[in-house]
Amino acid sequence: MKKVNFRYIPCLFTIPVSILAASLASAQPGGIPGSIAMYQENCAVCHGENLEGAAQGRPLRGELLHGDSVSEIAASISRGYESSGMPSWQRSLSDVQIRNLALYIAEARINVDYQTFNYDAPLIIPDDVIATELHSFRIETVASDLAAAPFSIAPLPDGRLLLTEKKIGVSIIGLDGKQSALIRGTPQAYDDSFILSMDQERGWGWIFDIALHPDYQENGWIYLSYSDRCERCNALSRAADSPVSMIKLIRGRIEDGAWIDQQTIWEADLEHYGNQTDLAAGGRIAFDDGGHVFFSVGVKGVDVSYGIQDLEFPWGKIHRINDDGSIPADNPFADRDNVYRSIYTIGHRSPGGLEFDTQGGGLWGTEHGPRGGDEVNLLLPGGNYGWPLTSLGMNYNGTPVNHGDELNIAFELADIQQPIVDLTPSPAVSSFIISSSEKFPEWNGDFLVGSLKARSLYRFQIRNNVLVSRETLLQDLARIRDIEQGFNGEIYLLLEHNSGSRIVRLVPEDQISEQKSVSQ
Predict the structure, then answer these.
(1) Which residues lie across from 467 on neighbouring strands?
(2) How far does Cα 330 stand from its chain's mean position?
(3) Predicted local confidence at residue 397, as pLDDT
(4) What pLDDT does residue 113 have?
(5) For residues 246 and 414, what is the distance between their CA atoms, to the nearest angstrom?
(6) H/E/C letters for each residue in 28-51?
(7) Where are the beta strands (DSSP E) in 333-385?
(8) What stretches in the chain show pLDDT beneath 50?
(9) C-beta separation of 321 from 251 below 8 A
(10) Which residue, among 244, 313, 247, has the nearest Cα to 280 in the 3D structure?
(11) Residue 512's pLDDT is what?
(12) What is the model's pLDDT at position 115?
């Protein structure tokens, strides 16, 4: 296999993060506003201003005759169907323009709005039983009135739940749904966040994932990832006059409401702490069945492209270490000098979820693309997952993702691992589980995947590393920040909302019937 050239000259190293982030967030002509204008100018007369159709053209909502994926819509625009009155646009529009136009149509079909993030969309828990292809269930609230920015939950053997809130800390949700006081002694969480224009909240020093060691009932170890923050502690921080931070993995135990016995399992060199905020930091944790712990580090360098393809930098990677922090001898880069030997895979932008398939034996991850290009990936040791060289999505300014030339990186597309599931347009994919719940036996081995912006829960049936079928289980519920399966098979969702986040669980129909019989 031809290897990527991992060495290149760093750039943009001292740009203040506020200027850099504002530049990245802006939409240029040909981007999102350009796509809307292009549709209105060329398509609305036939298909309606809101895709509702017109006298001379079919509606673009509902079922499409020639497929509804971005690639299929782009092909229809390009070649046309003159027999039905649809002209070909391949001579009038460039391939990039057609791709942007297809993206806009696909986004509009599912009501994706890139100017809002649905933190304030109505949060209504349905009372009725929800019927899906394989199981019917209802949603039951476990805890409510939580902070607006939670990140993860971890079910305990006794039915309680550990909870992390990004800007607050760690607490425990009791069997009665009440939240405990903060666990004393965990790392500091910083709440001095800021918002750029119509963008999302950003900051440095947040708390991320919490996970139990597979042998927790014997050893009591709890693993916690967080963004370790400092100021004026390296050259970048001093030059940019901003805080820097980096994902750090620790473990400890909880006793009498306190975090004790803390050990550092992994930390980066201080010189590699970055001034990119924690918005796309990753921070998810997963264990395999062989004594290893995996964790994700997203875009935490100096911009969204620098260093992600370089083994000398920790960000844009999935890491693998032994559960005591030592480096496994069979790691893909364990025999290399001057690299992070914990690196397992490279080329990641914003990892949203991380799980090990104990039945199938593989490591899986979900990841945010830019405008489109959200992914479900099988993570192979040493694999390159493409960012910022290529993506099935587009940059926010409407240009293709292809930063290899500017970074002096030569690559071949055949060397890039492609997603098992492509989620374009982007629902803002988040956490997931690979279900083994006895309460939902027909979902065994299926991926239950949450989303943030789309506020939906998806089920993907993946067999032999191929997507077989997909189903939307819940739609327009709330931003689903985390999904976990409890020791008794209960499936929990952590819902993120500005009015107060909450934890809910899925209750299968047969259990609903049993509860009704008992009450009668």
Answers:
(1) 462
(2) 27
(3) 87
(4) 62
(5) 31
(6) CCCCHHHHHHHHHHHCHHHHCCCC
(7) 343-346, 350-356, 363-368, 374-379
(8) 1-30, 513, 516-520
(9) no
(10) 247
(11) 60
(12) 66
Residue (of 260, 171, 355) closest to 162 by Cα position: 171
Omega within 30 of 0 (cis) for the link into 351: no
Cα→Cα distances 64→59, 84, 106, 425, Å: 9, 14, 11, 16
CA 174 to chain centre: 28
Question: Is the distance from CB of 277 to CB of 21 less than 8 angstroms?
Answer: yes
**What single string gives the DSSP state of each residue in 89-141?**
-TTTS-HHHHHHHHHHHHHHHTT--TT---SSS------SPEE-SS-EEEEEE
Alpha-carbon distance of 298 to 385, in angstroms, equals: 12
Helix, strand, coil percentages (3-state) for the chain, rounded to 5, are 15, 35, 50
Q: Check: CB of residue 428 under 8 Å from CB of residue 368.
A: yes
3-state secondary structure of 240: helix
Q: Which of 108, 78, 258, 106 is nearest to 185 (CA)?
A: 258
Q: CA distances (Å), 265 to each of 75, 116, 376, in order? A: 49, 37, 27
Cβ atoms of 424 and 383 within 8 Å: the answer is: no
CA distances from 313 to 75, 301, 348 (A): 39, 8, 12
What residue spans of 65-192 are helical by DSSP H? 70-79, 95-109
Task: Judge whether 426 and 396 are in contact, CB under 8 Å.
Answer: no
Residue 182, Cβ density class (10 Å: 0-12 exposed, 13-18 middle, ≥19 buried): middle
State the distance between the two ends of the chain, measured CA to CA, in whole angstroms.
66
Residues 95, 97, 102: CA angle, nearest 5 degrees: 95
Enter the pTM of the model. 0.92
The confidence score (pLDDT) of residue 82 equals: 87
User: Cα(280)–Cα(284) distance, rounded to whole angstroms?
Assistant: 11
- How far is CA 261 from its chain centroid? 31
List the strands of the sheet with 169-173, edge to edge: 150-155, 161-165, 169-173
> ∠ at Cα 293 (244, 151), nearest 5°?
55
- Contact between 230 and 206 under an 8 Å Cβ cutoff? The reply is no
Tokens, residue 32: 């999102």
26 DSSP 8-state letter: P
d(CA 1, CA 455): 40
CB of 426 within 8 A of CB of 369? yes
The neighbour count for residue 420, using CB atoms within 10 Å, is 16
